[in-house]
Amino acid sequence: MSIKAAASPQHQLFPSLSTCSNVSVLILLKSSSVFYDKRRGFRFDSLRCQSLQSTAVSKDLSTQAGNRFLEPNAVERNVVRLGLPSKGRMAADTLDLLKDCQLAVRQVNPRQYVADIPGDDEDLIFVHDALEYGECRLSIAIPKYGIFENISSMDELAAMPQWTENRPLRIATGFTYLGPKFAKEKGLKHVKFSTADGALEAAPAMGIADAILDLVSSGTTLRENNLKEIKGGTVVESQAVFVASKRALQRNDVLEAAHEMLERLEAHLRAVGQFTVTANMRGSSAEEVAERVLKQTDFRGLQGPTVSPVFSKRNGEVKPDYFAIVICVPKKQLYDSVRQLRAIGGSGVLVSPLTYIFDEEPPRWRKLLDQLNL
Question: Cα separation of 156 and 188, whole Å?
Fold first, then answer.
């Protein structure tokens, strides 16, 4: 089985999916029914992804015959397609996460392609709903100056007398479905939404818009352009998620790939910020050492401290002079754990970061199978 990865622009792949409050960008697991059409569709960067089970690398995503794209029925049916963010911090963080999970992706061609992906929101299902990066919010932002200087909430913005039927509030955005819906909910009667190329933050200063509706992460770009968010102006809060096609998951190879990716993602995310601390300690038995650790420290590990004998040879006899204690602690408690272990006789303390913490079975996997009636 091979995996193909394609980079997709944020919020364009499935525009109506942005109605989900926790969807920012799709790491999309799709079937091989993707086909290409120069006349319409969405932009993609050509990427490749290593196979989960072999070293084979899939063919170029932009399968062509001369200068003509192949017809849909000519595309291979034995691949799993993975849609990724195409640029910016979301793209970098996504590739870093996959790399940390040993699912390396590399860009082999800077060219972009146009794709038409069959499917709709009802065909999509969450595989992992919180990948813990890409946090942002979709918010209204207005200038800090002029008629907006004293405006600090959506209620005040809606009540401004400047907005009339002939002179509506002009909002530049790429979210032409969520924007009007949100404006109606907030009581903005006289408002006009428009799209703009390039950085939306410049639209108010250029005079082509009064406000913008765009994604905000740290807010630095807004401040640099003398813009501000206002109370009640957040449409949705968001982070990266992993979704898949229900129809594609009916294929055993796709389901197997989704299972392995979910296992790796869950195990890696659980291990982020966790450290293994190992110390040697004298004692009469493993039970005595464990009791000392449990009574005199605040750290237990995942289920409890692991205590095992450390053997050495003296006078021709092999005996356990020490016992090794192994615990798992979060980074912010790392030094405290070392200090407490030393206080009860621990020595030779070793610290190493954790890469994975695998459960018996990821809870999200069981939930996914239930949703698929499998």
Answer: 10
Contacts of 182 (CB under 8 A, 6+ apart): 213, 235
Nearest CA to 211 among 239, 197, 185, 192? 192
Tens place of pLDDT per residue across the chain (374 aa): 444 455 444 433 333 333 333 332 334 332 222 222 333 333 333 233 333 332 222 323 333 333 333 344 434 455 566 777 777 777 788 878 888 887 766 665 654 333 333 445 567 888 988 888 888 999 999 999 999 999 999 999 999 999 999 999 999 998 889 999 999 999 898 999 998 767 899 999 999 999 999 999 889 999 999 999 999 999 999 888 888 888 889 889 889 888 998 999 999 999 998 999 999 998 888 888 888 888 877 777 778 888 999 888 878 888 888 899 998 889 998 898 888 888 888 889 999 999 999 888 888 999 999 999 88
Q: What is the pTM of this model?
A: 0.62
Which residues are CB-neighbours of 154 under 8 A, at least 6 positions away? Answer: 140, 186, 188, 230, 231, 232, 233
Strand partners, 322: 282, 310
